[in-house]
Specification:
The structure is a single chain. The chain is an all-alpha fold. It contains five helices and no strands.
Length: 185
């Protein structure tokens, strides 16, 4: 009987051990399947991560490239703005110089026009209102001397100053000679 008990206990122990081994095998099998599934999921996530990381790197490179290009365009635009501002200032300066020349020409043409088409008093007023001191001095000399040479000097100066202001260069001597020859001829 002891032997029977020993066999029964041994068989029970062996059955429990076999069942435990089988359970451990099933549990290990399930854990192994879960591990393989987790590794497959990890690989899929890693692939997705690598793809996203690659896209991020490309997007970052594209952004940097576009940012650099935009910065270069901005710097070029700022350079063009400075150049255009410089050109504008130069054009404004030239415009002012031209307006000043035009004003000087208009005032002297008004004096010449007053001489030819108005009375002596209007001519005298135009000369007196002029800011040209040499013109006033020559007119004063004409009034004092009442000579043809001083008149020629006045007209030569007036015509020469109009020519100089307009950029047309003529020599006063040639004008005076033409007037003198015209008077003598």
């Amino acid at each position: 009987m002891l032997v029977k008990i020993f066999y029964v206990v041994g068989s029970l122990f062996l059955t429990v051990a076999l069942l435990g081994s089988a359970g451990m095998g099933v549990w290990t099998y399930n854990l192994n399947n879960q591990l393989e599934q987790s590794q497959a999921d990890y690989q899929a996530l890693k692939t997705d991560y690598d793809k996203l990381d690659s896209e991020y790197g490309q997007a970052k490179a594209d952004y940097q490239s576009k940012s650099d290009k935009a910065q270069a365009n901005l710097e070029e635009a700022q350079t063009q703005i400075k150049r255009l501002e410089s050109n504008l200032e130069q054009a404004q300066s030239e415009s002012k110089a031209l307006k000043d020349k035009l004003s000087a020409i208009q005032s002297k043409v008004a004096v010449l026009n007053a001489f030819w088409f108005s009375s002596d008093t209007v001519f005298a007023k135009r000369v007196d209102s002029s800011d040209d001191e040499q013109l006033k001095s020559l007119y004063k000399a004409v009034k004092e001397s009442n000579s043809w040479e001083t008149f020629v000097d006045l007209m030569s100066y007036l015509i020469q100053s109009i020519s100089d202001a307009s950029g047309v260069s003529r020599q006063a001597v040639a004008i005076a000679s033409a007037i003198t020859v015209g008077q003598n001829g």
